Amino acid sequence: MTFLQPGWLILFLPILAFSIGFRFPSKKLGYLKFASLAMLVIAAADPVFYLPQPSGMIIVLVDRSRSMPPEHTTVAKEIIDILEKNMGANNKLGVVSFGENAIIEKFPGEGKFSGTFQNIQGDASNLGKAVSLSLSIIPQNVPARMLLLSDGIWTGKSPIPEFFKAAARNIPIDLRVLERPNLEDRAIESFEAPALVSPGEGFLINSWVRSPAEEEIGYKLTRNGDLIAKGIQKLTPGLNRLAFRDIFENSDSTKAFLYRLEIDTAKNDPFPENNQAKCLVTLKGTKPILLISGNPFSSLGKALENCGLKVKKNKPESFSWTIEELSMFSGVILEDIPAEKLGFSGISLLPLWVTQLGGGLMMTGGKNSFGQGGYYKSQIEPILPVSLELRNEQRKFSVAIVIAMDRSGSMAIEAGNGRKKMDLANIAAAEVVNILGPTDEIGIIAVDSIPHIITPLGPINNKTEIQNNIMSIQAEGGGIFIGEALNAAVKEIESAKAETKHIILFADASDSEEPGKYKEIVNFCNRKGISISVVGMGMPGDRDSDLLREIASRGKGQIFFTENLEDLPRIFVQDTFIIAKSSFVESKVPVQVEPGLQSLLGQVKPPWLFPPIGGYNLTYLRPGAFQALKGLDESSPPILAFWQAGMGRTLCYTGEIDGLSSGGFARWENAPDFISSLARWTSGETGQANQVETAFTEIRNGYLFVRLNLDPERWKEDYSEPPEVSLIRSEFGKKPSTEKLRMTWESANSLVAEVNLHDREVVVGCIDLRNGKKLSIPPVCLPFSPEYQSFNSSKAEFNRGKILKITSGKEKVELSSIWKDLKETPAPIPVVIFFLSLSIFLFLLEIVERRTKVLSIAFSKFPGTKLQQTVPQNTSVLKTVERIAINEENFQETQVKNHEKIKEIDREKDEKTDEKQKGLINALKKAQIRGNKRNE
Fold first, then answer.
1. pTM, to two decimals
2. Measured between alpha carbons, how far apart are the two ends of the chain, in Å?
3. Residue range 283-289: average pLDDT?
C-alpha cells in the first residue's frame, strides 16, 4: 500500500498521546476512539494499492488518401467498432485520419466513435504528420500502441523520423493492410518537359509508362486541348519510354502551354486515374503587356506598340483569367472595362497577381470603369491608389430605391463559411443603404409567394436600424412570385419624393414563378419614370433567365447574373452607382501637373502642358498614394494616381483615353509617349534578377522544390535573412489562394523552399530578393495526384517492413488481441473509501458502547465460552470437572434451602415485631383517653 498524501500520518502522534492521556470510562471505549481516529488519518493520507493490470491507449491511424480502396472508411469503422467492443475499463481509444494533413477524429477517453469522418484533402498520404499528431495526444509514460490502416504507401516527407520518435517512447505501430488489387495496373510513371523554353527552340517531352505484361496501347498527346500526337505503342513488361518533340515557332505567343498525355485504359485496371498526366511549358523572354479593352476602335494598343512596347490585346470574354495565363504578362491595362466582364475569376485573381507576384495594373476611366463600372466593394478596389465611395457632398440628385429580395426556400442553402445565400443577399442590400445619404429614400421588400414589407419607403435617417432589419430577413418556403414582387415594389416607390426612382429585383434565375401581368407593371413604370434592374442568382442560360432579362430590358435598367453570391454586394452597389449618375463627371476640366508625375517619368522631365480633358471618374486619393495629375474644378479630383501595392504596382488614370469624353487628350501629340511611360512604369522590371542568381524548380513525390542558386564567387552576402517565396494557388472553379514561405539554406551557395502540391491546381510564384529584384517561378502543376503513382508492391512491402521493424509493431489479423499486447503495468486502486467507512463504523460502535455496554456484556461471556473450547479432552480432567459441577450443584441446593430458612425466620420476626407494635399503639391510645378525661 502506498500513501499519496503521507504528510497526514504525522497526526498519529497527537492521537496516540490523546488516547493515552485521556481517562476513558473503560478501555474498550479508548480502543474504539483510537481506532476510529487512526482510520480517519489513514484515509486522509490517500492510500492506494498497485496491482498489475493490462491497461493503456490505442490510437487508430486511418489512411484516407485517394489511393485507398473505395470502401476503406466502412472497413475502418468496423475495425474501430471491434476495438471499442473489446477494450477494458482501463483502456482508451483514439482515432486519427490523414491524407495531406492529419485530423483527430476522436480524442482518447471520449465517447463511442460516431462513425463519420471529417473532410480531408486526399491528394497525399502524409503518414509522418499522423504519427506526430498521435504522439502529441498520448501522455508520457502511458502504455500505448498505434494501429495503422493503410496500403503502406506514403507521399511527401518521409515519416521514418517519426517512427524513431515512437520507438523511443516504446510505442509500437501495428499494421492492418488495406489496399486495392494492383497486379494489372497500367500507369504513366512520369511525364516531364522543360519548364521554360525560348521561342523557336525545339524541346523533348519524355514519359515513362509501366505495363504489367507485353501488350499494345493507344495514346494521344494534346497541347492546350489541340491534338498534336496520336498512335499505338507496343509495351513490354516493366517501364517503356514514350518521347515527343515540339517547338514554339511563333515568337509572339504568350500562352502557357498545357500538355496532356492519355493512354488507353484496360477494363480491369485498378488505378485508371494514373493513365493520364499533364505538365506546363512557358516561354522565356520579355513579358508583354495585356490590354483588356471592350472598344474595338480603341487606338491605345497601336499607340503603345508604336512606342516600342510589346502588347497583347484581348477582349475580356476571350481571356481565360487563369494564373498560368496571367503569369505570361508583366502588366495588365483595363481600358474602360466593367468589373462584371472580368468575371469572378478575374476580379479575385488580379489583386493576388499584383500584390504577391509583382504584376502591374493600370486602369483607365470611362462610363464603364471605377465605381460606375462595379469595382466598388470588389477585391480589386483595395489595391487601387484611389477610393471609389459615393460621397454625399458630391451628389447632385437624390434617389429612391426599392429592393425586392427573394427569400424563397432556395435562399436557405449554405453558401460557404457558415453563411446561407440569404445572408449574402442581406449584406448586399445593406451595402446599398450604406452608400446612400439622408436625402435619399430606401424601401426593402422580402418576397416569396407574397410580399413582406421589411422597411417601408422613407428617408435614410437611421442606417443602423434599417441595416439591422435587412440582416434579420430569413429564407422561407416556396419560390419567388415575380408579379407580386414587382407590384409591391411599384406601390412603395410611387410615393417617393426623389428625382430618380429605381427598383432592384433580386431573384433566383432557376426559381422565378408566377410573373403575372409583369408587362403591364413594367409599362406603368416606364410612364412614371421608374427604372428596373434585375440581379439574377444563377447563369444567363438558367430556366427563368429570359424572363428576368426581359424585365430588365423593358424596365430600362441593368441585368446581372452571378453564381458566386460573394459578388452580390459589388453588383448591388454598381447598379446604385449607375442610378445615382454622379460617379462619372462629363465636363471640360483643366488638368494641373503635380510633382508626383516626375516619379513616373524618372530622369525624363515632362516638357508638356497637359491639355484639358472631357470627363473623369470621380474618385478620392488614398492616404499614402501619389498624385501626378489633378483636375481643376470644385472637386479637385485625382486624374492620375499611383502607388506600390504589395510586390506590384497599380496606376489609375481616371480620364477617358480614347472616347467621347477624352477631350483634348485624344488630339494631344504627346499622348502616345505619355501613355507608354505610364505603361512602362506599371509593368516595372522584366522580373529577372542578376545573372549570378538563378532559380530552378523540381517536382518530386508530390512536392515542389524551389531552389535559388547563388554565385559561389560572390564577395558580399546580400541575404542577412533568407528571401521569401510568394505563391498563388489556382484551381478552376475555386477562389485562388496565396502562400508565403521563407527559404532555408541548403548549402553555402543555395537556398530551397518546399511546397506541397495538390492535384488539379496550378502554382505560380516569385522569389523576393529584397533588392528591388525578383525571380519569377514559372507555372507548375502535378502530372497527376501522387496518390495515383504506379503502385509498386515491393515498395509497399519495404515500407511496411520499415514500420514494423523500427517500432517493434506487428501485422494484425486478429484485432481483438491488440489490447492484450499492451504491457501490464501497476494500476492504482484507491482505498480511501474503505478506511473512511471503517472510521465511521468504529465511531458509531463507540456511541453504541457508551449507551448500551453491549461490547462489555459480550466480552464478559466470551472467556467462559473460550474455556470450554480450549479445555483438553482428557478423561481425568473431565471427571474432575464433573465432580466440581456436582459439588457446585449440591452447593447451590444447600444455598437455596438456607435462603428459604432465613426467609422463614425473617417472617416470624416481622410477625413478632408487628404484634409488639400493635400493643404499644393500643397502650398509647389508652393513655391518651385517660389524659383527655383528666382535662375535662
1. 0.68
2. 104
3. 81
